[in-house]
Design goal:
297 residues; mainly alpha; two-stranded antiparallel ribbon; 2 strands
Length: 297
């Protein structure tokens, strides 16, 4: 992204994911479908439960990072691409089924979307989505599908997890993002991708054989990690709904998240790859804290 001009248009993925995740979070909240979903996370609002959830979350991140580092170190490019796309397909299968059931509950269609039918529909959607992401040359199609995935996954976490867990996870992931981009596995992954493509592709569009297929949202020369989109969506959804739904909080959170993202993108314009989580999440949490402190709706 270095040497490419950043403009307000590059906030489009951030704004779209914020809008989509708030709508999806509202659907999940109203349907109460997540009350029936088993997860390794505690739903207790206590600090002890939040620390437990943080431990589980970061353990999963740590395992994934170790696996990623090993694959990058030994240049297992085929395995890397398979890992990204298969992880995308499997997680999208479960996420899509949850949303099918949530929407069918909201629309009073429970008897139409029986459990077996919802699984079949989710499987078809998942396979078609991942196939398109893996093969399409249209940047906007790939970006739209990746945003759909990131927003739906993020809003699910935003509704499922207690607010203190989300704040602790956001803080921990911001620190991890700094390490990963500057010293960790993501730094090595970027270097590996650069070594495979010494010359830039036209207009910065993602190549069909890129390692990052299924891992980034490509938009006008800017590559936003799917993890960034997921956690943007998670924090937006949580602030919108907790302790109760508030459009004013949603607007403030979206504005501060977008401000942090824009400043980060402008720095990317001059410095190259940078962590996209710390500043946006910090500003968004700060805005949420101000709202709660002042007793604003």
């Amino acid at each position: 992204m270095k040497n490419r001009k950043i403009g307000l248009i590059h906030l489009t993925p951030v704004l779209l994911s914020s809008t989509a995740s708030s709508i999806l979070a509202w659907v999940l909240e109203q349907s109460n479908i997540l009350a029936e979903v088993e997860t390794p996370f505690s739903r207790s609002p206590s600090m002890e439960a939040s620390i437990y959830n943080l431990t589980v979350f970061m353990s999963l991140i740590g395992f994934g990072s170790i696996l990623l580092y090993i694959l990058v170190k030994f240049r297992k490019i085929g395995v890397l691409k398979l890992l990204f796309l298969s992880s995308l397909a499997l997680s999208l299968l479960g996420i899509t089924e949850i949303y099918i059931l949530a929407f069918s509950t909201i629309l009073s269609l429970e008897y139409i979307f029986l459990e077996d039918l919802s699984i079949l529909i989710a499987a078809v959607i998942s396979l078609l989505t991942v196939y398109t992401i893996a093969t399409s040359e249209n940047e906007y199609v790939v970006a739209s599908l990746m945003l759909f995935y990131g927003s739906s996954a993020g809003s699910l976490f935003g509704v499922l997890l207690p607010i203190w867990t989300i704040i602790l996870v956001a803080a921990a992931l911001s620190l991890y993002d700094l390490y990963s981009v500057f010293k960790g596995p993501l730094k090595h992954l970027i270097e590996l991708e650069k070594s495979r493509s010494p010359t830039n592709s036209q207009r910065g569009s993602i190549r069909r054989d890129s390692i990052f297929r299924g891992a980034v949202v490509p938009f006008k020369g800017l590559y936003l990690g799917i993890g960034d989109v997921i956690f943007y969506s998670m924090i937006i959804s949580a602030i919108f709904l907790k302790p109760y739904p508030s459009v004013l909080r949603l607007i403030a959170a979206t504005a501060t998240l977008s401000l942090g993202a824009y400043i980060t993108f402008k720095l990317v314009e001059k410095r190259g790859a940078l962590p996209a989580l710390p500043l946006p999440l910090l500003l968004t949490i700060l805005a949420y804290t101000i709202f709660l402190t002042l007793g604003l709706p």
